[in-house]
Specification:
EC number: 3.6.4.13
Strand order of the largest sheet: 4-5-3-6-7-2-8-1-15
Radius of gyration: 25 Å
Bound molecules: adenosine-5'-triphosphate
Shape: globular
InterPro entries: DEAD/DEAH_box_helicase_dom, Helicase_ATP-bd, Helicase_C-like, P-loop_NTPase, RNA-helicase_DEAD-box_CS, RNA_helicase_DEAD_Q_motif
Strand content: 5-15%
Number of helices: 29
Family: Belongs to the DEAD box helicase family. DDX4/VASA subfamily.
Protein name: RNA helicase
Number of strands: 15
Subunit structure: Found in a mRNP complex, at least composed of TDRD1, TDRD6, TDRD7 and DDX4. Interacts with RANBP9. Interacts with RANBP10. Interacts with PIWIL2 and MAEL. Interacts with BMAL1 and CLOCK. Interacts with Tex19.1 and, probably, Tex19.2. Interacts with RBM46.
Length: 727
């Protein structure tokens, strides 16, 4: 049975999906549900027994925690009860010698992990390898699974009077429509739809050709040049596809909005207890206060208005390093202030150097380029840059795919000192000669491990070899992430001066300790029931639910809406407008549940996200660390619950135990058992998606560690863990 047979289960209800913000608009029946299509009796009859069967078997395998679970399920908001699920004895990582867990097959996971990346076609191409990687039961492409899926889509079409797809092509068209579930169905919902598949104008559905078939890959409509530009929205002159016309609304200009921030949490001061290790030669000493950084008055005022009174560890170490003009690779836990750690010293430098106010020019020559892997993240970085540069002559600009290219150009020509960009859009703009690179002094790769991996790496290499780009000796290159696999560190050397410094705050790749992690053993077919149960307990607290595929994100969002849980979704096949709307609805609390693919796993800083649920575990442990890092930010506490399906997640058991243990979390006994039984000496597949790097790969540095009080022991820090095969 394929893992997507759940699609068939959801089938009868599929047509009733109206995301919450649409539901408000369209509901007019007594119960607000008049768009619900009654499931056909045959579907009901066909699916129900099967579902019951799966539910039973799911619960059977999860019996260990099931009882406890049921006992606690009605305690609204009492999520500490969730900690009880599967709570086992603490696991000391005994017997997991480092060498035993290496040899993971890295290449496939690498690609697999990037299932919902955007703005880069190279990455998407990688997915074609995925099919070969997973075993049959886990493959999205398995025959019966696909048939089940098809059935569900037929239902969806029937529901909206759009005819049933009768062949693969129809199905693919229908699949495109799911990408635009929220957007493309609107006409049908409002009664104007005619069932013409061409009106399905999902971001990738129409522009990029839709799903290839394997869960995430998007097939481009054009040839070799179609790559990044099409992924960006098909706007480039050398690509096909409709023009993207979306112009994002300008961010609010009033000072209050610019400086709006959330409070640091009760554990903010505990950051001081984390061990920091700086490696490389002649590192400048850390600073302890903002004053020590000697920033100009405007910058200091902005820092105060942003509510920053105390430096986080990564800021204490990175700011003086960057101010000293050194290249830097910095790794610090999620939510600990890496953005300000690079923005503040860059701005300070610019101010000190007397940066000239840029003015309208057809070719802009920014001093700083910041790249990040997702559109929402670069936008967030831009807002931070705008905040800290408020009242100065420094102008920050953001450009990203899924928006009108002309809009990006208009933003740039008005003046640009700091350019925040996704790689695809950046390369497009450089190609159009709107950006010259000669003046670049700072190149920042946020989420640097992602920016250098197989997906974005080639794009980044192109960037640094663009005509005019100063050599690494002539520019300052800064890399930040919460995870930094060793192989990526090695790749990074090409971008950095040989004397770069490496700052590791805590365990490189470790999870934020402010996130209470719970792992539940839940079989594929029990997941939805479990999810609803947990969400009902959680109530209105903001929750991100991560799934592995875009298609599944739509299904789960659909399902939750049917369950009357206000939900929206974000993934790479939604139009940019829809993505921003979804994020807005989630931020505002209008939809307290956001179903997301890994496109939302990194960097997003959303106030008050109290829970992360991994409905599906990601392929790699690094991605897990980033996902759960959407909660527990800036000293606040958060909770993460992960559904571990032994059918598909066993390869994660060992690295998961390591992450849990390092973050001083309970490790369920059943997970230990799986980890032990999954280990087969000499079997290289056992650690796929394996563990993270722990140190600066150069290892020939004169390391300098600072243990403030009760942080990690230095032996932990230097422990050469099984990090050769991070994914
Ligand atoms: N010194 C500080 N004082 C108060 N708040 C801070 C400070 N530094 C950062 N913050 C706030 O903490 C939050 C998290 O910061 P940021 O998004 O930069 O984290 P990050 O380390 O980049 O996380 P991720 O790894 O998820 O990208 C932001 O809201 C930011 O404004």
């Amino acid at each position: 049975m394929g893992d997507e047979d759940w699609e068939a289960e959801i089938n009868p209800h599929m047509s009733s999906y109206v995301p919450i913000f649409e539901k408000d608009r369209y509901s007019s029946g007594e119960n607000g549900d008049n768009f619900n299509m009654a499931p056909t009796s045959s579907s009901e009859t066909d699916d129900r027994p099967r579902r019951d069967h799966f539910m039973k078997s799911g619960f059977a395998s999860g019996r260990n925690f099931g009882n406890r679970d049921a006992g606690e399920s009605n305690k609204r908001g009492n999520t500490s009860a969730m900690g009880g699920f599967g709570a086992g004895r603490s696991f000391g990582y005994r017997g997991f010698s480092n060498s035993k867990f290496e040899d993971g097959d890295s290449s496939g996971f690498w690609r697999e992990s990037s299932n919902d990346c955007e703005d880069n076609q190279t990455r998407n191409r990688g997915f074609s390898k995925r099919g070969g990687y997973r075993d049959g039961s886990n493959s999205d492409a398995s025959g019966p699974t696909r048939r089940g899926g098809r059935g569900s889509f037929r239902g969806c079409h029937g529901g909206f009077g759009q005819g049933s797809p009768s062949n693969e092509l129809d199905q693919d068209k229908c699949m495109q429509r799911t990408g635009g579930l929220f957007g493309s169905r609107r006409p049908a919902l409002s009664g104007t739809g005619n069932g013409d598949t061409s009106q399905s104008r999902s971001g990738s559905g129409s522009g990029r050709g839709g799903y290839k078939g394997l869960n995430e890959e998007v097939v481009t409509g054009s040839g070799k040049n179609s790559g990044k530009s099409e992924a960006e929205g098909g706007e480039s002159g050398d690509t096909q596809g409709p023009k993207v016309t979306y112009i994002p609304p300008p961010p609010p200009e009033d000072e209050d909005s610019i400086f709006a921030h959330y409070q640091t949490g009760i554990n903010f001061d505990k950051y001081d207890t984390i061990l920091v290790e700086v490696s490389g030669h002649d590192a400048p000493p850390a600073i302890l206060t903002f004053e020590e950084a000697n920033l100009c008055q405007t910058l200091s005022n902005n820092i105060a208005k942003a509510g920053y009174t105390k430096l986080t560890p990564v800021q204490k170490y990175s700011i003086p390093i960057i101010l000293a003009g050194r290249d830097l690779m910095a790794c610090a836990q999620t939510g600990s202030g890496k953005t300000a750690a690079f923005l503040l010293p860059i701005l300070a430098h610019m101010m000190r150097d007397g940066v000239t106010a840029s003015r309208f020019k057809e070719l802009q020559e920014p001093e700083c380029i910041i790249v990040a892997p997702t559109r929402e993240l670069v936008n967030q970085i831009y807002l931070e840059a705008r905040k800290f540069s408020f009242g100065t002559c420094v102008r920050a600009v953001v450009i990203y795919g899924g928006t009108q290219l002309g809009h990006s150009i208009r933003q740039i020509v008005q003046g640009c000192n700091i350019l925040c960009a996704t790689p695809g859009r950046l390369m497009d703009i450089i190609g159009k000669e709107k950006i010259g690179l000669k003046q670049i002094k700072y190149l920042v790769l946020d989420e640097a491990d992602r920016m250098l991996d197989m997906g974005f790496g080639p794009e980044m290499k192109k960037l640094i070899s663009c005509p005019g780009m100063p050599s690494k000796e002539q520019r300052q290159t800064l890399m930040f992430s919460a995870t930094f696999p060793e192989e990526i560190q090695r790749l990074a050397a090409e971008f950095l001066k040989s004397n770069y410094l490496f700052v590791a705050v805590g365990q490189v790749g470790g999870a934020c300790r402010d996130v209470q992690q719970t792992v539940l053993q839940v079989g594929q077919f029990s997941k939805r029931e479990k999810l609803v149960e947990i969400l009902r307990n959680i109530g209105d607290e903001r929750t991100m639910v991560f799934v592995e595929t875009k298609k599944k994100a739509d299904f789960i969002a659909t399902f939750l809406c049917q369950e009357k849980i206000s939900t929206t979704s974000i993934h790479g096949d939604r139009e940019q407008r829809e993505r921003e709307q979804a994020l807005g609805d989630f931020r505002s609390g209008k939809c307290p549940v956001l179903v997301a693919t890994s496109v939302a796993a990194r960097g997003l800083d959303i106030e008050n996200v109290q829970h992360v649920i991994n409905f599906d575990l990601p392929s790699t442990i690094d991605e897990y660390v980033h996902r759960i890092g959407r909660t527990g930010r800036c000293g606040n506490t958060g909770r993460a619950i992960s559904f571990f399906d032994p059918e598909s997640d066993n390869h994660l058991a060992q690295p998961l135990i390591k992450v849990l243990t390092d973050a001083q979390q309970d490790v369920p006994a059943w997970l230990e058992e799986i980890a032990f039984s999954a280990y087969i000496p000499g079997f290289s597949g056992s650690t796929r998606g394996s563990v993270f790097a722990s140190v600066d790969t150069r290892k020939n540095y004169q390391g300098k560690s600072t243990l403030n009080t009760a942080g990690f022991s230095s032996s932990q820090m230097s422990n050469p863990v099984d990090d050769e095969s991070w994914d």
